[in-house]
Amino acid sequence: MELPKVWRRWLTRHERIADALPAVPLIVIATAATAVGKNDWHDPRWGEAVWMALSCVPLAFRSRWPLGVALLTVVGNLTLLAVAPHIAPTPAASLVALYTLAAHGSRRTAWSVGVAAAVAISGVYAATQAESLVGGASLLRFDFLLAATALGRAVRSRRENLAAARARVERAERMQEEEARRRVSAERVRIARDLHDVVAHHMTLVNAQAGVAHHLLRTNPDQAYEALAHIKENSRAALDELRATVGLLRQPDDAPGARAPIPRLADLDTLVSGFRASGLPVRMTHSGTPTPLAPATELTAYRIVQEALTNSHKHAAGSRTALVLDYGPHTLKVTVTDHGHPGAPKGAGTGHGLIGMRERAIAIGGTVTAGPRPEGGFQVVAELPLSLTPTLSDAL
After folding, report:
1. Which of 111, 113, 24 is nearest to 69 (CA)?
2. How far is CA 180 from CA 174, 183, 185, 394, in A?
3. N or C: which terminus of the chain carries fewer CB neighbours within 10 A?
4. In 10 A of CB 39, how many CB atoms?
5. pLDDT tens for each residue of 120-144
6. How does pLDDT run across 45-97, given as a tens digit for each residue?
7. Phi, psi of 275, rounded to the nearest 5 degrees
8. What is the 3-state secondary structure (H, E, C) of the chain?
9. How far is it, in rounded angstroms, from Cα 59 to Cα 20?
10. Of 247, 234, 245, 243, which Cα lies nearest the Cα of 201?
11. pLDDT over 60 (residue 346)
12. What is the distance between the alpha carbons of residues 286 and 297, in angstroms, rounded to a whole number?
C-alpha cells in the first residue's frame, strides 16, 4: 500500500491532529523569523514564539467549529496587538482559521469575517506600530488575510465541482446500467415470445398429425404415410426456426442477417396449408389493396396469425376457421375467427400466447383484442400500422 494513502487514512482517523498539523510549520517559521536581524542572526524572541504557539492552539478544532475558531484567533490577535504590541506575533493562526472557514462555511460568512478581520488587524497593527495603513506590514497583513479567504473559497469551489462531476458520472453509469438491463429484459421477452410461438405452433401440428397417423396406420396406411410426411416437414421447420431464434443469443451484434430468416405474410400460404393438413379447415381471404408493409409489421402479423390458428387447432380442432387480411389506408386488420363446437377439446393454456400477441402489437403501435363470440367460437382481431418510424422498425 502506498505511504501517502496510509498517511491520509491515519489523519482521517485522527481529526484533531490533522487540524493542528498546520500550526507546526507556522511556529517554526515564526520562531526562525524572530531570530533574523537587519545584518546578522541573533537569539529568537521566545516571548513572541510562545504567543504564536498559544494563538495556534484553537486550530486543533478548526474543522469542527470553523467560525468560532476564526473569531477566537482574530480576537486573540487583536487583543495582543492592543496590550503588548512589542511582542505581537504575525496573524498566521488567523490565516489558517480564515482559510478553514472559507473552505467549510458559507460564502457570505467567509467573506464577511475575512474582510472584517483584514481591516481590523491591519488597522490595529498600523495604529500600534505607528505605520501607514496602506503601506508596509499593515498592507501586507491586509492582503494575506484576504488571500487566505479567497484561497479557501477556491478550494471549496473546486471540491464542489469535483463532487458535481462525480455525481454526474455516477448518474450516467446508473442510467447506462439501467438502459442495458432494460434492453436485455426486452430482448429476453422478445426471444421468449418467438420460442413460444415456434414451439406451440409446430408441436401442436406434430401432435395432431401424429394422432392422425396413429389412428390410420392400420386402416389406411397411405394417409398415415402422408401424415408422417407432414410430421417430418413440420419438425424440420420447427428445428429451422428454433435454430434461427436461439442463434440470436450467440450473435455478437445486430449485423445484417443476424435475425434471418424472418417469416413474412408471403409465408402465410405455407402456414395455412400446414394447418389444413393437420385437420383444421382454414379459409383465408384478403380485402382492400395490398401494400408493402414494414418488416416488423409483417413479422408481427405472421406471429399473431400463427398463434391464433394454433389456439384454434388446440381448442376447436376441426372447427371452421376464417382468416381475413383487410388492408386499410393506414392499418392492416387481421381477423382470425373459429366457430368452435361443443365437443372441442380444451387445452390447459397458460395465456402466454394471448399476452405475446398483445405485446407484439403494442411494440409496433398496434392493438389486439381477443375473446369468445356470443354465437360461439373465438375471435382474434389485430390492427397493425402499415408503416413504422425507421428507429422502431430497425429496433424490431
Report:
1. 113
2. 10, 5, 9, 18
3. N
4. 6
5. 888 888 877 767 766 677 777 888 8
6. 666 667 777 777 788 888 888 888 888 888 887 887 777 666 556 677 888 88
7. -70, -40
8. CCHHHHHHHHHHHCHHHHHHCCHHHHHHHHHHHHCECCCCECCCCHHHHHHHHHHHHHHHHCCCCHHHHHHHHHHHHHHHHHHCHHHCCCCHHHHHHHHHHHHHCCHHHHHHHHHHHHHHHHHHHHHHCCCCCCCHHHHHHHHHHHHHHHHHHHHHHHHHHHHHHHHHHHHHHHHHHHHHHHHHHHHHHHHHHHHHHHHHHHHHHHHHHHHHHHHHCCCCHHHHHHHHHHHHHHHHHHHHHHHHHHHHHHCCCCCCCCCCCCCCHHHHHHHHHHHHHCCCCEEEEEEECCCCCCHHHHHHHHHHHHHHHHHHHHHCCCCCEEEEEEECCCEEEEEEEECCCCCCCCCCCCCHHHHHHHHHHHHCCCEEEEEECCCCCEEEEEEEECCCCHHHHHHC
9. 5
10. 234
11. no
12. 16
Query: String of b and e for 54-63 (b: at least 16 CB within 10 Å)?
Result: ebbebbbbbe
Closest CA to 308 of 362, 264, 369: 369
Q: What is the average pLDDT value for the chain, to the nearest integer?
A: 76
Convert the pLDDT of each residue in 349-395 to its tens digit: 456 678 888 888 888 889 999 988 888 888 999 999 987 654 344 44
Q: Band of the pLDDT at 311, cuts 50, 70, 90?
A: confident
Within a 10 A sphere around the Cβ of 146, how many other Cβ atoms? Answer: 18
Show Cβ contacts of residue 260 under 8 Å, excluding neighbours closer than 6 positions: 244
One-letter amino acid of 151: L
Q: Which of 262, 243, 263 is nearest to 251 (CA)?
A: 243
Entry pTM? 0.45
